[in-house]
Amino acid sequence: MSRKNLTVAGLVTAALTVVLLTFALRPEDSTTSGTLRQASVPNPSQEKTIKKTALVQDVSATDRLNRVDVSKHLRTMLSDTHGASPEDISAYARNLQQGHGHITMLMLIDFRTQKTTTYKSSLPEGTDHENKQLLKYLNTAKSAIKGHQSYESPSFVIGSKKYYFVAQRDQEGQLGVIALINQKILDRVAQHQLKNLRLIPYPKEGKYRVESVHADTLQDLTVKTGHDNENASHYYENEIVVRFRNGHPTAGQLQTIAADIHCKEPRKLGYAYIFRSEKMNYSQLKTYFAYKWHPQYTEPHYMYLTNDTVSENTGANVITPNDLLFSTYQWNLPAIETELGWNLSKGSKEVVVAVVDTGVQADHPDLQGQLLAGYNAITNGSTPDDDVGHGTHVAGIIGALTNNEEGVAGISWYNKILPVKALDNSGAGTTYSVAEGIIWAADNGAKVINLSLGNYADSQFLHDAIKYAYDRDVVIVSASGNDNTERPGYPAAYEEVIAVAATNSTGERASFSNYGDYIDVAAPGESIASTYPDNQYAALSGTSMASPHVAALAGLVRSLNPELTNKEVTELLTSNAVDLGDAGHDKYYGWGQVDIYQTLQAAGGGQVPLQLFPQHVGKQLKSMQ
After folding, report:
1. Which residues of the chain have pLDDT under 50?
2. Which of 88, 262, 343, 461 has the most beta carbons within 10 angstroms of its beta carbon?
3. Which fold has domain 44-186?
4. Out of the domains of life, which is the source (predicted)?
5. What are the φ and ψ backbone dihedral angles of 37, each rounded to 5 degrees?
6. Cβ-based neighbour number of residue 265 at 10 Å
7. For the structural domain made of 325-607, what CATH number should be given?
8. How confident is the model over 88-108, as pLDDT tens digits?
9. Whole-angstrom distance, CA of residue 259 vs CA of residue 265
10. Measured between alpha carbons, how far is 577 from 585 in angstroms, rounded to an integer?
């Protein structure tokens, strides 16, 4: 027998052996290993009540997160300024307030000299009753630190704004500090979650020429309640996406189109063009292109919206980071065995994770050194700054600085984050901006792309962009949506994408989470603590929060074993998930909730994982033919 035939025979034998071992070592059937969680689907009325509860929970958790964070900053101020000159203390206070705009007033009391220095000394003014309440809490704060006690007041309202006082005293008892905190972040989170959890009709129809159609029939649809979103796809009424059958039109043909439909120069991305007419609506534009140009396809220019909503005894060390908010608030990381997983991989700066979203706050102290320059698909040439908060929150879940005694811990310690702004200051983006963001990320080094956004329209234009990235070996992860519906959402439902559902702290399906046969895995998505603009922290719920858990895991896997293809990474994530629903794949949890430690164990360190060995054998056999 020739050497080549011997090699082939050996490879075939090895492949058969692995297949047999895989079946022999398969975990016992779920019916014998314990009762699995059964998902339930609330009706629209129950869904609304549950979502309102989730919103209140997120606002309450955000309040707690920021009270802890502010108290820490005040303690640090007292420690860092001990023995400093008045000028240095003033500079420190000024820098602290500049970096944390919610600190409305700082009052430093030197108990040795009984001198009080106030920074930004003007207090907000309201009604007589409101002013009296403010002074009451301020005097209580002074009394508390005089008695060597720390203090936090309840929230109180001045005008339309909410505040609270917090007071700290140093260990030597020489200095005390009182801060007045503006709680505007609570209103911001509440408004964010009203839209994100689809508790209100969003986006508003008739504004900026936004209209809605039924995702199946494309018949006009009016969105009157948040629940109506499950059947709606929003689009721009005076725009159309066109892919011409014979490549690209000539300059002369584009001039003819411009004159016929009264439009300026179209936007072009890949093979498709977006035309915006000054006088024609989508229906008229569709008829025009169908009869005169016979294109390969036409479709509306859709909008995409944000989709924000105990360790096994293995012998491995549990790595507990010292981040301020980790132990108390980040239930989500232990739930998916992150601390054990860090023994195997903390990520690599060579593996870039793109966040195609609303942008990211570049100078957030808990994201310093984690971000690359990125791209703005909304305003070309501008930096991808976050004017919503969603993208900053998503980025922090993936890669907030870990073990830095600040804020929250990210899942990845070292993977770089590539911020791509594809959603505008309302939290919405278009087919064009999202597709452009995906293509740009794929062309600029992303190994993983997170898409915490979606719509119910199956757009060929967007799918082309997804395929473009997938063909370049990018792992693509997307949120399934927050409408508690079985309707497939896109881009999550595309076969090239890992579709993520959300779970809560008890491992059950989050009530808002979309479901269906297209779901691949689930991840924590209720009241997730992460970074937020203005150097703050917020707790948000949504599949938007679940998706970056999976994207971060994909980044860890590719850091540990760079040889794996995007298809192999997906297979590892799904086959090592913890089954939570019916045995095997089900429409509520997919293959189950991701398990970071188990997945990284299976991924190996540069070697071919056992379960993927047959595919690698197949590749080698094919290459020898």
Report:
1. 1-36, 202, 204-228, 231-232, 309-316, 606, 608, 610-611, 613-614, 616-617, 619-625
2. 461
3. Beta-Lactamase (3.30.450)
4. Bacteria
5. -75, 135
6. 11
7. 3.40.50.200
8. 888 998 888 888 889 999 999
9. 11
10. 10
- 222 backbone dihedrals φ, ψ, rounded to 5°: -100, 125
What phi and psi, each to the nearest 5 degrees, are found at residue 138? -65, -45
Count of C-beta atoms within a 10 Å radius of residue 84: 12
DSSP 189-226: HHHHHHHHTT-S--SPTTSTTEEEEETTT--B----SG
- Where along the chain do its domains lie? 44-186, 239-300, 325-607
Lookup: tokens for 559: 């850091």
Environment class of residue 584 by beta-carbon count within 10 Å: exposed (0-12), middle (13-18) or buried (19+)? exposed
Question: Which of these, 166, 165, 3, 148, lies nearest to 72 by C-alpha position?
Answer: 166
Please check whether residue 335 is in contact with residue 524, taking contact to mean a CB–CB distance below 8 angstroms: yes
Residue 14, burial from CB neighbour count under 10 angstroms (0-12, 13-18, 19+): middle
Please check whether residue 71 is in contact with residue 130, taking contact to mean a CB–CB distance below 8 angstroms: no
Which two structure tokens, joined as six digits, stand for 213?
């159609």
CB contact burial 296-306 (16+ within 10 A = b; e otherwise): eebbbbbbbbb
Closest CA to 402 of 531, 256, 488: 531
Distance in angstroms (rounded) separating the CA atoms of residues 290 and 294: 5
- Helix and strand element counts for the chain (H, E): 18, 24
What are residue 499's DSSP bridge partners? Answer: 478
Q: Which residue numbers are catalytic?
A: 357, 390, 544
How open is the CA angle 574-602-477, to the nearest 5 degrees?
35
Q: What are the C-alpha distances in Å from 517 to residues 258, 462, 551, 589, 591?
A: 43, 21, 20, 9, 10
Cβ atoms of 166 and 179 closer than 8 Å:
yes
Which of these, 412, 503, 388, 398, lies nearest to 449 by C-alpha position? 398
E-only strand ranges, 111-174:
115-119, 151-152, 156-158, 161-169
